[in-house]
Design a protein that fits this description.
Shape: globular
Structural class: alpha+beta
Number of strands: 8
Distance between the termini: 36 Å
Radius of gyration: 15 Å
Helix content: 10-25%
Mean pLDDT: 94
Order of helices and strands: HHEEEEEHHEEE
Largest sheet: 8 strands, antiparallel
Length: about 200
């Protein structure tokens, strides 16, 4: 059975999104669904800073849709986009002040055959190489909105592996604040949504 051993504690998330984001690289995002564990090593993330960040969903303040971004830290903020896929963010920082880290790409780790079925047999490098792809591969949807990431069935685990090198670049696919270096990606990863 899947273990919570190594699950990140709440204190990990109670920091700025810009601190949490690079520290998430190399950690394992795990989801236990219908008794089956799937997981992937985080290779790409983006930070969003709420009221300080025009690209953030929380830039204009709290709404019914973005309320999870305002805390507490260590919760999942999941939203539906482009009418066809979910994206998952990790809520960070001080409660009441919105900030989050978007998980952009994973290197598949456990349950790869299940992930392939969920993604129509795509090659391993393409199973979770984007925010909508990784939620489909791991079976993550809106039912996990606001979920406490220190508990099952969705959690992030540290198994001690860290990337040899990562780089910082502008975020992808946004119009506002597009020049800010808030994207963090494992250098040379074939699993990233876009090479860095």
């Amino acid at each position: 059975m899947a273990s919570l051993h190594g699950a990140l504690k709440r204190s990990f998330y109670r920091r700025s999104a810009l601190e949490v984001a690079p520290d998430l690289l190399g950690k394992l995002l795990c989801h236990l669904k219908d008794g089956v564990l799937t997981s992937g090593r985080i290779v790409e993330v983006e930070a969003y800073l709420g009221a300080k960040d025009p690209a953030s969903h929380a830039y204009r303040g709290p709404t019914q849709h973005n309320r999870a971004m305002f805390g507490p830290a260590g919760r999942a903020y999941i939203y539906f986009t482009y009418g066809n896929h979910f994206c998952m963010n990790v809520v960070t920082g001080e409660e009441g002040v919105a900030s989050a880290v978007l998980i952009r790409a994973l290197a598949p780790h456990e349950g790869i055959e299940v992930m392939k079925r969920r993604r129509d047999g795509r090659p391993v490098t393409g199973l979770a190489s984007g925010p909508g792809k990784l939620t489909a591969a791991l079976g993550i949807d809106r039912r996990l909105y606001g979920h406490d990431l220190t508990r099952k069935p969705l959690w992030i685990r540290d198994d001690g592996e860290a990337p040899a090198r990562w780089v910082r670049t502008p975020r992808i696919g946004i119009r506002q604040a597009a020049d800010r270096l808030y994207r963090f990606v494992v250098a040379g990863s074939p699993f990233a949504s876009r090479k860095a």
